[in-house]
Amino acid sequence: MRGEIIAVGTELLLGQIVDTHSAYLSRECAELGINIYYHSAVGDNRERLKEILRLAGSRSDLVLITGGLGPTEDDLTKEALAELLNLPLVPHPPSIARMEALFARFGTSVPPGNYKQGLVFEGGTVFENRNGTAPGVAVTHGGTTYVLMPGPPGELIPMFEEEVKPFLISLLPGDERIVSRVYRFFGIGESHLEERIKDLIQNQGNPTVAPLAKEAEVTLRLTAKARDADEAERIMEPVRREIMKRVGGFCYGEGELSLEELVIRRLLDQKRTLGLAESCTGGLITRMLTTVPGSSGAVKGGVVSYTSDVKKGVLGVPAGVIERYGAVSMEAALAMAERARELFGSDLAVSVTGVAGPDPAEDKPVGLVYIGCAEEGYPTRAYRLRLGGNRQGIQLRAAKHALFILQERLKKGEAQT
Amino acid sequence: MRGEIIAVGTELLLGQIVDTHSAYLSRECAELGINIYYHSAVGDNRERLKEILRLAGSRSDLVLITGGLGPTEDDLTKEALAELLNLPLVPHPPSIARMEALFARFGTSVPPGNYKQGLVFEGGTVFENRNGTAPGVAVTHGGTTYVLMPGPPGELIPMFEEEVKPFLISLLPGDERIVSRVYRFFGIGESHLEERIKDLIQNQGNPTVAPLAKEAEVTLRLTAKARDADEAERIMEPVRREIMKRVGGFCYGEGELSLEELVIRRLLDQKRTLGLAESCTGGLITRMLTTVPGSSGAVKGGVVSYTSDVKKGVLGVPAGVIERYGAVSMEAALAMAERARELFGSDLAVSVTGVAGPDPAEDKPVGLVYIGCAEEGYPTRAYRLRLGGNRQGIQLRAAKHALFILQERLKKGEAQT
Q1: Going from the N-terminus, what domains does chain A have, and what CATH number goes with each?
Q2: B177: which of A13, A315, A324, A325 lies 20 to 30 Å off by Cα?
Q3: Which positions of chain B have pLDDT values less than 50?
């Protein structure tokens, strides 16, 4: 199936917003086995919109369109397509009833302009919008299926997940199922990972193997086509096993779970608590962990000890350690982790000290980072890293290293409990 | 001038990367007064690439193209355009010499595939790539100017800024200058800001007035066309004055300076230091501040006191305050700010305590946040906020509020010194 995606909105052409929908829909289509050949963006202009829709209809079996379903006069997507295909728009009573109920809840009546949002193509498939007033709608004409979806991400994504995706699957030949698994890697660059599984990527068929680099991590997505989920798993199994044999040491998880979520989940599962002492990461690790809902049950607190005075005064790192080895040293990392654990009365503590740049410090090079990890009943360990990139890149990589070390520690804990 | 933008790369159509270049180039073009009517993305496929380029040539005066200038066989942009326009490609000796010098520095010779990157259109304008091996090139044919630029952002953006932008300006009629000013607002939503200056937006001419919402802030961009910078400033002045009369109280700065950069700059200018005590923001404020290079000269440190034990034990908030008023209270915020200032020995300290959600705490509603601010020689103040949004939104808004309060404090300091 030959598909393309059109994003509608003058704000895209002014560069006021970045079109992330087309990438999202493309990923979803890739998983479904739908080939996307073009993306286009066009403004809220009736003639140009019709021109793009005409072109899309001439070259694609499936046209996914986002935006331009709002209540204002500028919102023209549905009207332009109706004109182009000469299809009547008819009221969709359930959508209108939903809209009226929604406005009634705010104590107002539906503004007249909004009623046009309740119009759909006669004979089309309507997708309910649970997060807004504009329903989505699909219509097939001249061998092309057009799918219109609202532009706001909070409306588009749930609608796609819940309604449009099953609809697209129903268009696919046969009763194929598409199943994917995502594996998350840390500590190995994308090119190195690709190098090690090059043959699997080059000779891929079913399942497909797609690496993707994202914020100092790499994910690998396996996607299988099969008659059912069990068969899909069987198809993926040998490839998964081969991948893990080669790069499994860098794999920390599966699915959408991030490193910080994994750490919080393991801490909560094991009923253990964490304290943090951060220097060059400036609170980033604490910040990442506390973004996770429920983290307050696991993270006791953190100290950002940006200066040696704070390392000594607040954390209680012995002055001798800093004077002798410097604040950026294995010894300082060890002392910071131990003192953070005492200070917060936590089961574990992690510390980071290093040089994030842009300038060297204590005659130590930018990118030199030490991570300490203290745990009740175990000797405190520290790790030395040499990280590349700019200041923010070094901070992010150092934070992710610390989280990776933590989750490895907690994996051991899991094995013991 | 009628323009459009084409992004080339199969990874875009697979959704592996989001096309941010088209938005970037669109913003730049909007400032230059070039109207962009279309964005397109197409894969590394010779025929489809030629088809898109043919279409673009038929409808636009200017076609900006990113990507597909790499050394591999998949990189086809230049070749496709050369075939379409039937234009010869010729070696560009300075680009080839740069490439050879670059590889020599790594102790290797130029891989044969890379030499094609040194080919350009005969009679075209070449843009030097200081951050990679692929030069950019512009060529005019049949009334359309095609500009080819490399895809990696670290190559595209500097090339655009330094070379392509002046080239585009040279294409514009007359000797018009385009000048813009960006004003940054906090504490007012985009729709409220728009509402208050609606007439200025609706009746805009020269200068143009463009509001843009971004991460709990709003910016307003004024853009004037004039013969020179002075005239542009004169054209903008009455509109700027009218805007500031209406919403100036929410304006914290101009240009690209963020709230955290502003706070750090003011602290460094005034040679003052800061300590932080964060509860519901989980280290976010410390994190934002320490992202700024040079922040180590101003931020002494921070404590993330996620639990009442840490508030008492580490920060030294009196147990009575927490028992009587709760950890989320005006009194706790005041005590946290004062104790943070003592602990870090800083000139100022800021504290945050609140309920970020998803669940209420201490019978207090999600979104209730207190911010404390302690300063040497002044009474400690605390502020009560009711913030909307999800957990991350509340954390971000609370952090920005704290930074906004801090920069207001420091503005006073500026007036006094």
Answers
A1: 2-171 (3.40.980.10), 177-254 (3.30.70.2860), 259-416 (3.90.950.20)
A2: A13
A3: 417
- For residue B227, give every residue at least 6 positions away whose Cβ sits within 8 Å of its Cβ, in sequence order, or none: B175, B176, B177
Alpha-carbon distance of B74 to B66, in angstroms, equals 14
Neighbours of A54 (CB within 10 A): 13
How far CA B377 is from CA of B104, B316, B338, B409, in Å, comes to: 61, 21, 12, 13
**Across the interface, do B304 and A305 touch by the CB < 8 Å criterion?**
no
Q: What span, in angstroms and rounded, lies between the C-alpha atoms of B271 and A345?
A: 35
B144-149 and B62-66: which strand pairing?
A: parallel
For residue A277, which of A216, A327, A319 has the smallest C-alpha distance?
A: A327
Residue B417, pLDDT score? 46
CB pair distance less than 8 Å for B28 and A15: yes
Write b or e for each residue in A260-277: b if 16 or more Cβ atoms lie within 10 A of its Cβ, otherwise e. Answer: bbbbbbbbeebebbbbbb
Q: B417 Cβ partners below 8 Å, 6+ apart?
A: B270
The pLDDT of residue A415 is above 60: no
Three-class secondary structure assignment of A87-107: CCEEECHHHHHHHHHHHHHCC
Is-cis flag, bond preceding A88, omega within 30? no
**B388 is written with which tokens?**
């909307």
Q: ipTM beyond 0.95?
A: no
A160 SS3 class: helix
Cβ–Cβ pairs < 8 A, chains A and B: 224
Q: CA B250 to CA B412: how far, in whole Å?
A: 16
Strand order in the sheet with B144-149: A125-127, A136-141, A144-149, A62-66, A2-8, A35-42, B35-42, B2-8, B62-66, B144-149, B136-141, B125-127
Instruction: Name the residue with tokens 């923001």.
Output: B281
> B295: which 2 tokens?
């922040």
Q: Regarding predicted confidence, which is higher, A216 or B165?
A: B165
How are beta strands A274-278 and A299-305 bridged, if at all?
Answer: parallel
The angle, 0 to 180 degrees and rounded to 10, between the axes of the packed helices A391-416 and A259-269 is: 30
B150, B134 contact by CB (below 8 A): yes
Q: Judge contact between B213 and B190, C-beta under 8 A.
A: yes
Rg of chain A taking only CA atoms, in angstroms: 27
Residue B255: the pLDDT is 83
pLDDT tens per residue across span B44-78: 899 999 999 999 999 999 999 999 998 888 889 99
C-alpha to C-alpha distance for B349 and B316, rounded to whole angstroms: 15
Q: Which of B86, B96, B87 is nearest to B119 (CA)?
A: B96
Assess contact for B132 and B71: CB atoms under 8 A: no
For residue B202, count CB atoms less than 10 angstroms from its CB and return exposed for 0-12, middle for 13-18, buried for 19 or more: exposed
Interface test with B, best of A19, A304, A308 (most B CBs within 10 A): A304
Option in A23, A40, A313 nearest B38 (CB): A40
Distance (Å, whole) CA B9 – CA B72: 12
- Please report which confidence band the pLDDT of residue A417 belongs to, taking 50, 70 and 90 as the band edges: very low
Alpha-carbon distance values, B232 to A141, B34, B238 (Å) = 52, 18, 11
> Which residues of chain A neighbour B293 with C-beta distances below 8 Å?
357-358, 391
Task: Name the β-bridge partners of B384.
Answer: B370
Whole-number Cα distances in Å, A112 to A44, A96, A98: 20, 12, 15
A188 burial (CB, 10 Å; 0-12 / 13-18 / 19+) is middle
Give the distance, in angstroms, between the CA of residue A291 and the centroid of all CA atoms in the same chain.
14
Query: CA A80, A82, A83: angle at the middle one, nearest 5?
Result: 65
Q: Give the whole-number percent of chain A exceeding pLDDT 90.
A: 65
| C-alpha distance from B140 to closest chain A C-alpha (Å) | 23
Quote the CA–CA distance of B140 and B61 in Å, as a whole number.
9
